Amino acid sequence: MSNNGMIPNVVTYTTLIGGFCRVGRPKIALELFHEMRGCGQPPDCQTCAILLDGLFKNLHFPEAMTLFQEMEDKRLDLNIVIYNILIDGMCNAGKFMIARELFNTLSTKGLQANVRTCNIMIKGLCKEGLLNEAMELLEKMDESGCSPDHVTYNTIIQGFLQHNETSWAVNISR
Known about the structure:
single chain
């Protein structure tokens, strides 16, 4: 591109970063991210979200946390999408207590959990064997106007089945 006099923009870099993360090459994605900033192309929230998600999914937790800290320090728009990525990453990394703390402090950041956020937490709670808390969150979703979807019910049913609570799983499905 630059050989033809064209300078890559934020969309170009974001596409490349996402592609390298998807094919399991997050280090190259991170290098592109740094190159992007060095070339005067400030990453937007979408770029950061894609890289953060890619780092977590490729098990590069320290780099993901460093990126998140940079995002906080630069006061980027840390919306619910970013927190969903962070909470999911923490759950998948076996750091459920951190995920729970992040979830519980969303309102202090001016954010409201959406169905995706709740589904992530229900999955984490089930994985930890905290089935009663998963059910409580399901009930709170209904009360708060955040309607559970098919993913919510499938996740909680799978959680109960994985912990040999077949009667509960059947009751939920009715």
